[in-house]
Amino acid sequence: MKVVVYGAKGKSGVEIVKELVSRGHQVVAVTRHADYSAPGATSTVDDAGHPDKIAAVVRGADAVVSALAPPMTDTDQIVGLTDRVVEGVSLAGGKNSGPRLLVVGGAGSLYVTGQDGKRVTLRDSGYLPAEWLPIVDSHIKVLDNLKKNQTVDWTYFSPAGFFEVGPRKGSFRLGKDDLIVGENGKSEISYADYAIAVADELEKPQFRGQRFTAAY
Fold it and tell me: If we measure between CA atoms, which residue out of 78, 72, 75 comes closest to residue 7?
């Protein structure tokens, strides 16, 4: 399988590239930096600024992973970046003959039991610090745009509440729209184990046109 990974230099992107390469897939690691290289992968430079260029990069691939991250001073950049990736994938064939698209998303749109006992999104639960809300809201906009899209074969992957550097345990639980919480009361997953779930979904799709999540 040929997989193009945008944002290959980021915390999640690095692990996703590593996991896919370890499984023998042909990986194209896309970053904004010409000096970047990933062992076992082909490196390509693109800033996801133009759908036509994105289409040229992803054409002929089986799947595209968007692991892009915005600057924290302007989190809504992730909305435009993802929209352009979607358009590029659409230009490269879209649902008819183009690659699948898996978007590394956020956890804020997952559902939890709020402080009043009602089912609400994590964003609206009152549990999140105010300084996290801009990036949470931006990721929610990305998911909303994907849900409206009919041109590409997309999947949106929400991480656990805490998405961190950590060990590769090799085991976790999958869900769809509800935050997964462990016996310790925490919702967490490492980038390495998240990457396993990404590769599993690309190899054996379960969540086409849907969002899913993973956590310990």
Answer: 78
